[in-house]
Amino acid sequence: MIASLVNAAELLEPYSPQVPTDQLIVALNRWYHEHEVKTYDHEHEEIRHQLPPLWEAMVATAVSRHTQQPWRILNFGCGTGFEASLLLQFLAPESIDELWCYDLSPEMLEMCKATMGPKFPKAHFVNSLDELPSDGRFNLFATNSVLHHLPSPAETLESMLPHLSDTAIWLAGHEPSSRYYKNPICCETYRRFLQTHRRRRWLSPSAYLNFALRKTGLRETPAQAAAISAVNAGMLERRPSLRVVSRLVDLHVAHSSEEAEAGRGFDIDEMTNHFSNDWELCSYKAYSFMGSFYEGGLSRNWQNECRRLAEQYPKDGANFCSVWQRC
Ligand SMILES: C[S@@+](CC[C@H](N)C(=O)[O-])C[C@H]1O[C@@H](n2cnc3c(N)ncnc32)[C@H](O)[C@@H]1O
After folding, report:
1. Residue among 149, 170, 292 whose CB has most ligand 1 atoms within 8 A, to mutate
2. φ, ψ at 183 (rounded to 5°)
């Protein structure tokens, strides 16, 4: 089994859930991303720096594996159009026949449409899986930073198979790896880093400003918006803490070795095993050797530490990209 519902029901219990846990996770994600769409493109700058070269390499793997072009692309959890834009950039435009973008959040999808529509006028933008053709036409399946939001990633991936061709390639970008927190040397280095980082963070005026704006309610966060919506919709009787909302939205992101051991996060070896009937792993790249921190923003000393860990434990970065082909 890969990445199960972990302790989601336990986290929700104090707030008296009125619907099943998986429904709540999907709903919280929808409200969270409805709110996050306003800031998403500005607040994830590290992703915008770090990921394009990784996607370029993933696309090169896909091209080397697949001779049956043109591409018919299904982008699941498209968000504001990040990976769809990269696909248009790295694939020859004449090699793309179809592009279908799907997202749970209508707001994210609208933003994707505004970005991608002019770049690829033939693109389709759908908010329901029922609108996707299920004739097995898609030979390129693209996801980025979305599997960790799904109540049951393995089930969702299985439900995608009828939409995909028998030799489809799956580009799976930027997911959290539990291997980082299962590696004691990575954990110990991260613990040392956090000690110095925490001291420095509280010297920063912007940290105080953000804290004050959130505490006074002047800046509503996506987690606050999702917590309020869940109560208003009658899905929870009491408003959950923001920590609980973010643990449920980022359901499969581990933050500690205990969480990783409890089943949070993805482990490429477990995935390879689990998917062995449907998918063959073509390439894998792990990065982020300082946990959730973008390595490019660290001091030279800490960047060197990251390099050292990457050389010693290449599979154990906190995030990874992978390429798969149906088998
Ligand atoms: C972190 S964002 C990533 C967006 C985009 N792929 C990117 O990399 O910029 C996660 C996206 O997954 C979508 N999402 C969350 N849960 C989902 C679900 N159950 N089904 C489909 N999309 C979902 C959210 O609406 C959001 O757009």
Report:
1. 149
2. -100, 110
Pairing, β 124-126 against β 138-144:
unpaired
Q: What residue ranges do the domains of the chain occupy?
A: 1-327
CA–centroid distance, residue 79 to ligand 1 (Å): 5
Average pLDDT over residues 241-270: 94
Distance, in Å, from the CA atom of 284 to the CA atom of 268, rounded to the nearest integer, reads 8
> Residue with the nearest Cα to atom 10 of ligand 1?
146
pLDDT for res 40? 85
176: nearest Cα among 252, 281, 239:
252
How many other C-beta atoms can be found within 10 angstroms of the C-beta atom of residue 267?
A: 21
Instruction: Look at residue 216 in the predicted model and tell me its pLDDT.
Output: 58
149 lines ligand 1 (CB under 6 A): yes
Q: What is the DSSP letter of 241?
A: P
Q: Is 125 buried (19+), middle (13-18) or exposed (0-12) by CB count in 10 A?
A: buried
Q: Is CATH 3.40.1000.70 correct for 1-327?
A: no
